[in-house]
Amino acid sequence: MQKTAQHILLSILIGVNLSACRSDTSDSDDTSAPTTETAFDAASVWATLRNDFDLFYAYRDDRGFDADAYLDRVGTLVSAAPDRATFRRQLHRATYAFTDPHLGFGPAEDGDFNIIPTSSDLQIDHRAGQYYVADVRSDSAAYEAGIRPGWILNTADERPIQDLAAAVFTDLIDTPSDAQLDYAGTLLANGRRVGDRSLVFLTPEGETQRLDLANPREQARAVMARPAIETQRIATPDGSMIAVIRINNRLGDNDLITGFDAAMAEVMEADGLILDLRNTPSGGNSEVGRSIMGHFTDRVRPFQIHTIPSLEREFTVPRRFVEQVTPRSPNFDPFRTVVLGGHWTGSMGEGIVIGMDALGVHSIASDMGDLLGAMSNFSFADQTITLSIPTEALFHVDGTPREDFVADQSLTSADSDENAGDPALEAALIYLRDQ
Prior knowledge:
It comes from Algimonas ampicilliniresistens. This is Tail specific protease domain-containing protein. InterPro entries: ClpP/crotonase-like_dom_sf (IPR029045), PDZ_sf (IPR036034). The chain is of the alpha+beta class. It folds into three domains: 5-106, no CATH class; 122-216, Pdz3 Domain (Roll), CATH 2.30.42.10; 221-373 and 391-434, 2-enoyl-CoA Hydratase, Chain A, domain 1. It is built from 13 helices and 17 strands. It has helices at 5-15, 42-56, 67-78, 84-95, 141-144, 161-168, 178-190, 217-225, 255-266, 286-293, 309-315, 348-358, 423-434, and strands spanning 104-106, 122-127, 130-136, 152-156, 159-160, 197-202, 208-213, 229-235, 241-247, 272-276, 301-307, 320-325, 337-341, 362-365, 374-380, 385-395, 409-410. Strands 2, 3, 4, 5, 6 and 7 form a six-stranded antiparallel sheet that branches. Helix 6 (161-168) crosses helix 7 (178-190). The longest helix has 15 residues, at 42-56. The termini are far apart.
């Protein structure tokens, strides 16, 4: 369905503000394509869709490749699609080149890859032709099976991972970049929306490990059944008490605002505080994010910069603005606080990490979920095809793109290490002890 630019811009400016990453924890979007349809004009739908994509995708031109040439190639492929289901499937595969978990076409099908980072427990890093495990999500099927950072993924479902990763970009990219192969390897390691995984790894000791793993969507559902906030107190050898507040993927739940207020009131006597955002892969909203950060400042402070590239593209007039945090009671000393982030910190979780960093809180994190920007939703082909797309670009207050943020203490893996330890938590306790 063709939308006017004014209509969509209004929806962006009024209805979009750091919306959550698509959650993959329910089956409500398991909508199969119609088995029969008439007169589907793939070329016409693509022409409309391409115009909106070019105008509104905030990160279209900064993903490390020629977007115009790539989209021309995508258009040649999808314009020949015989039906809506094939068209949608080809389009969704084409989004992987942008390595952006916030970008995708629906409705989802059982055969689609799981949405990362929400329904994932392995992060893969492609180096020198090999697919290394960069991190393993804590409390996951992969972690319980003994998989650790440094292992090499060799096969998925009895096929070499190199062949499968190349097939993700067949007919679209002749020579995928390392970043694109990272992304493809992570998709393959975490499997499809339906079905378990059969993976073969090579350990650093040279041993082959064949493992059948549960679908990570099961863990995604289990996380949502846990308390939204978990609080822990850790007594240190020097007699200090450190409080840990861990949020379990509820940054889009407005009830978390009062829940976090209550949690803060209970830990005000702590000598130090660790805010653990390593289990927030589905993002959330800015109201929840600002309410959390407000407990760590005693005056109004900026936490994030927004730009809306479509306005400059359409009208040549840029729009750039700063979002601010206001103090919230009770207030805890930011210099006795550490914030943790990792590969399963997504969208608003990433926004809180960079915002806390801007407030002077010590940050410890690996690369995070890299969910780009703030999201909007579009529809096409009589509302039978949906597009989730970042329409705002987001930055640290120092101008660094959110996805390029490097923590005060940067880790390769934040959830687990080769010895099954908790590297981020251990680093935070050492930092607070030294303070």
